[in-house]
Amino acid sequence: xxxxxxxxxxxxxxxxxxxxxxxxxxxxxxxxxxxxxxxxxxxxxxxxxxxxxxxxxxxxxxxxxxxxxxxxxxxxxxxxxxxxxxxxxxxxxxxxxxxxxxxxxxxxxxxxxxxxxxxxxxxxxxxxxxxxxxxxxxxxxxxxxxxxxxxxxxxxxxxxxxxxxxxxxxxxxxxxxxxxxxxxxxxxxxxxxxxxxxxxxxxxxxxxxxxxxxxxxxxxxxxxxxxxxxxxxxxxxxxxxxxxxxxxxxxxxxxxxxxxxxxxxxxxxxxxxxxxxxxxxxxxxxxxxxxxxxxxxxxxxxxxxxxxxxxxxxxxxxxxxxxxxxxxxxxxxxxxx
Amino acid sequence: xxxxxxxxxxxxxxxxxxxxxxxxxxxxxxxxxxxxxxxxxxxxxxxxxxxxxxxxxxxxxxxxxxxxxxxxxxxxxxxxxxxxxxxxxxxxxxxxxxxxxxxxxxxxxxxxxxxxxxxxxxxxxxxxxxxxxxxxxxxxxxxxxxxxxxxxxxxxxxxxxxxxxxxxxxxxxxxxxxxxxxxxxxxxxxxxxxxxxxxxxxxxxxxxxxxxxxxxxxxxxxxxxxxxxxxxxxxxxxxxxxxxxxxxxxxxxxxxxxxxxxxxxxxxxxxxxxxxxxxxxxxxxxxxxxxxxxxxxxxxxxxxxxxxxxxxxxxxxxxxxxxxxxxxxxxxxxxxxxxxxxxxxxxxxxxxxxxxxxxxxxxxxxxxxxxxxxxxxxxxxxxxxxxxxxxxxxxxxxxxxxxxxxxxxxxxxxxxxxxxxxxxxxxxxxxxxxxxxxxxxxxxxxxxxxxxxxxxxxxxxxxxxxxxxxxxxxxxxxxxxxxxxxxxxxxxxxxxxxxxxxxxxxxxxxxxxxxxxxx
Amino acid sequence: xxxxxxxxxxxxxxxxxxxxxxxxxxxxxxxxxxxxxxxxxxxxxxxxxxxxxxxxxxxxxxxxxxxxxxxxxxxxxxxxxxxxxxxxxxxxxxxxxxxxxxxxxxxxxxxxxxxxxxxxxxxxxxxxxxxxxxxxxxxxxxxxxxxxxxxxxxxxxxxxxxxxxxxxxxxxxxxxxxxxxxxxxxxxxxxxxxxxxxxxxxxxxxxxxxxxxxxxxxxxxxxxxxxxxxxxxxxxxxxxxxxxxxxxxxxxxxxxxxxxxxxxxxxxxxxxxxxxxxxxxxxxxxxxxxxxxxxxxxxxxxxxxxxxxxxxxxxxxxxxxxxxxxxxxxxxxxxxxxxxxxxxxxxxxxxxxxxxxx
Lengths: 337, 519, 358
Description:
The complex is a heterotrimer. Chain B contains 22 helices and 13 strands.
C-alpha cells in the first residue's frame, strides 16, 4: 500500500525509506572473502530480535495455511478418514468430473458469482459512501452515535440476523409487507421467491457489514493531510468538490486494495446466512457452492468432493485476485504485492 | 486414584441400592475391567462416570467405562446427520474401546468394513444371548442394522411404542362454529376453511392460521389425504418400501394430486402463509396467540399445550384420527421407527471384545433394560406390582427426559431396547386419549428401515441422490407457493428426474434392499 | 488599496483565549512578517485572516471591506502552507490549476497563466510530474506557484520554509523576496525563524503569548527593542541581558560598573536589566567604553569571527569577536569593553525599555 502523502515527523516518507535503505546498506557491508552464508549468519545474529518478532507469524502461516495444503490432495483421492490422507487411494480427476457433470453444482457456481457480483456492485461502494458521509458530519456526538448504530449489526450473529430478516419479510406480520399493505400492494412471501433472494441477501449483507466496513475507509480519510482541505477552502472549493477532488482520490489506494481483497473472496459467499435464509423454493438463485457442498457432504461425509470444490474455488479466486492486482498495478500504481 | 473412586463408588452404590443385586449372576468379569468410551450426543456431550445408572451397571457387571470422548463441543446433529465428533475421533487415529453416538449407523457401516470397528455377528451369536434372542424375534431389525458386507457393526437404540405424530385440532373452535370432527379430506378442508373465514377466535379479524407445522416437511405428509406418500421413514424425504419394492413418495401420482390440492389450500389461506420460514417456534407462537387451528405433531408435547386453557377461554387442542383420503383410506404416515441409527460399537483396538459384547448384552437383560430405561431402583423408581414406577419425587424434578439423561438413563448413544412404559407414566391425558383413539384403528404403515450400500452402490447414490432430492424439494415448494402448476409440469418433472438418474438410484436402492432384507 | 487591517482581533476556543486583541495594519504591497515562538498565536492570526479560523472578536478588513463573515474563497487571498498541501494524485500543472478550475476559469487562460508562472518559478520541465517525484524545494515552488496563479490581493505564508534544509531555506528565502519585489502583492508571512523575519520583512511583528510585543522595520526592532522579549528574540546570537542597579555614574553589574551618561537622580538605585548585543563589545578598550570582567568558558570559531561564551557573576554571556582566523589569542581574555552608547536598559520588573534622563 503506498500512501505517498504520509509524512513521518514532517519528513516525506520516501526520504525516510531512502535513509533506512542506506542505513541497512551501511550495516551489511559486502566484504570481500565472505560467503553469502556467513553474511546471512552474521545478519541473523545481529538482527535476531527482529526475526524473533517475525516468528509467531511464520509459525501461524505454517500451521494454519501451509500444513493444511498437504490435505488438499484428498481432492484427488477416494478419501476415508480411517485410512487417512496418505492411505486413501488416488482417483485422479474423478471428483472434478462429478462436480462439473452436475447441473446443480454449475448452477451453484453461477449463483455464487452472481451474488458476489451484486455484493461487489452494491456492497462494495456502500461502506465507502458511508465513510464519506460520516466524514461530512461535523457534530461529534451525533457522528459517534450514528457510527455506533451502523457498527452494531456487525456484532450480531448470523442466526439472529436471519431471524430479523425472516421476521421483517414475513408475509403476515413483517414490517416490509405492512408497509406494502399501506401502499396498497399485495403481500409478498419474499423469502420463497427466487427473484427476491438476491436483493434480500445482498441488502442484508450491506446492512450488516457496511458500517463496520466503513472503518477502514474512515481511517484512510483520517490519514489525509488536513491542510489539503484548508488549501482547497482558500482556493474556493465547496464540500462536494473537496470530497470528489481530495477525499476520494486520496483514499483511492485503500479502495483499490480493498477491492482486490474483495475480488479474492468472490467465491466466498457468507455461507451461514445463505443456509439460514434459503429454502428449496429459492435454491434456483440462492444455492451457492458452499451450501451445495454442505448438502452433498451430508450424505456420507464426502470430504474429498468438498475438497475438490474448495480447490476449484481457490483456483478461481487466485486467478481473479492476480488479474485484479495486475490491472490495478498497471493502471493506478497501487497493488497488494 | 482411579481405584479409589471405584471403591468409593462401590461403597456408596451398595449403600443406596437394594440387596436385589447382591447375587452376581450379571457379573462379567471377576476383577474390575476398565474400557474407554467415546459417547457423544447433542444432549449429553460426554460420557460421565458418575451417572447413577453407570455406577450401578459397573457394580453389576464389573466393567468400568472411562470417558475418552473427543469433540465434545461439536454437535452430532440429529437433523442433518453430521457426525463431526466421530469424524474427529477417527481423524485423531485413536478409537476408544467403545464408541456410542447418535447417527452412528452410516458411520460404522462405512468404516467398519474398512477395519475401524469390530464385526459383531459372531460375538452376538456366541456371547450375547439377550441380543441374539431379540434379533431372533425381529429378523427385519437385524437386517436393518447390517452393513453391506452382512456384518453388524453396532448395537442399536431400539425405540418402543407405536405412535409419534398425530393430527391435532382446536375442538373448542369446532364447537364454537357448530362443526363436527372432520372424517374425510373434504370435511377437513371445509373445517379449515371455516377456521379461516368464520373467525373462531372471535377477535373480529381473519387472522386465524388454519393449518400450521413446526417442520415444513410435515405439511407434505398431508398428501396421504390424496393417497400420496411423502416420507418413507422418520427421516424426511426418505425412500419408501411397499410390497418389497423401493420407491419414492415424490414420484407418485397421489403425491402429484396432493401437491396440487395443497397448492390450492395454500392459495386459499388454509395453510400458514409462512409455512416454510416460521420454523420451530410455530406451534408455541400460533397456539399461545390463539391463532393456530390444526397441525400434525407429536402426541406428548402437543397435548401439553392444553395447559393454555388457563389463559385462553375454552382452549382445547385434541388429536383426531387421520381423515379418510379421497379413496377412503385413513393413513398416519409417521410412526416411531423400529430401529434408530443410534447406538454403540466396538473400536478395532479393543482388547476385550467378548467382555464388551457381554456388557452390551447386559443392557438387553431384564435388569439392564430396566436400568437403561428407568434409572436406579429406590433412587428414581420403585417396583409396584412387579413393574417399575417412577417416584413422585423424581417426576417432580422437571422435564422427565432431562432428569433421566442426568441419571444416565434413556441414553440413545447406548444400544438398548426402550420400554414404552417409562413414557406412558408421565404422558399427559390429552396425549393418552389421542393414543387410545389411534389404537382403535389401524392407521400405521410400514417404515423403510434403510439399507447399507456396497461401494459401487454408494457411488451411484452419492452421485444422484443429493441433486435429485434438491430438485424434488425445489419443485415441491414452488408448486405449493403457486409458482408453476404441478399438473402441467408433472411429465417434465418426471423426465428431469430420470435424466438425473432416478432410475439408477432406485435400482441400487432395490438391490441393496433385497440383499439386506432378502427381497 | 489592498491593505489588510486587523482591529482588536481576538481568538478564543471556548473559555481559552489564545489571541488577545491584535491591532495591525498592513499597507498595500507591504511584506509583513509575524514572528514569535511556537504557540504565540501567529499562525492562528494568519489563519483568521485566511478565513480558516473564525474570528471571535474584533474586525478584519481587507481592501477596505470587512471580512469577518466572508467565506475564504471570497476574501481573494492565497495561502502557502508549511507542508505545501500539494494533492498527491495530481501533477504539478494540475496542482497549480486546482484553484482556477474550481473558479471555472477558461481552460486556455489557465494554461497561459500556468505556463507563465511555471516559467517564473523554473517549474516548466516538471509540469507533468507528481509531487512525489519532486524535491523539497520544487514542491515548495509548486506551492507558491499555486498561490501566484490566482493573482490574489494578499499572499499568506504559513512557515513555508520550515520543512527545507538550511541551504535550501536560504535560497528559497531569497527567491520569495525577489518574487515579492516583482509581483508587489501584499504579503503576510508567519515564521518562528528571526533570520527569515529580518531578511524578508518590510516590517516585523513580534508576537508573544497571543499579543503583539512590537511592530517595526527590522532595523528598528534590532536597534531599539521595546522590551526584553524582543531584545532576546531578534539577533543571532540574541542580546545579552544582565541584572544591574543604576548609580549616579552608570550601572553596577556585580563588581563592575558600566559607565553611563545621564542617569537622573530619580533613577539612581533603580533595578534594571542591562542589554548588550554580542557584536557591540570589543576586546580592547576604546572611547567611552567600560571594562566588564568575564570568565571565558568556550570559544566557538565561525571563521572570520568567533563566539565567546563567558560568565560574569551569575550571568551567562555571549560575545562576538573578530579574529581574522586566529583564535589563540582569545584564550587569555579576562575582560571585554562595553561602549556606553550602545547599551540598552530595561525595567527589571516590566521588561520595558528605559531611557536615561527625564
